[in-house]
Amino acid sequence: MSGPTTLPETDTETEQRTRRQPPYHVVLLNDDDHSYEYVIEMLKALFGHPVEKGFLLARLVDTEGRAIVCTTSLERAELKRDQIHAYGPDPRIPRCAGSMSAELEAAE
Question: Which pTM was predicted?
């Protein structure tokens, strides 16, 4: 058998630390061209929110002008914002010309 085995020394200053991405809010913005039903359906389709939560968020965006509909990583938040922008017009409102608007904001 050979002599004692020594492990290589590690330099604690050069160890990599896993850093988490800061979270971002997806914020739905109010307008007068979309119905509560549209908002509820969109939130269910894009975020999986149940009807009850969709109604609460629709009411919040209507009364406050904005509502945070999701908090996630920047990449996923950008995807969700783009999905809101691409969802299309509300068929219940003839003057509705397009999707709702959304923006991102840092959650921290």
Answer: 0.80
Cβ 21 vs Cβ 74: under 8 Å: yes
Q: Which residues pair with 103 in a beta bridge?
A: 27
Element (H, E) at 69: strand 66-72
Q: How far apart are CA 84 and CA 34, in angstroms?
A: 12
Give, in order, the Cα–Cα distances in Å from 23 to each of 18, 71, 81.
15, 6, 14
pLDDT of 5 > 70? The answer is no
Tens digits of residue pLDDT in 74-88: 999 999 999 999 999
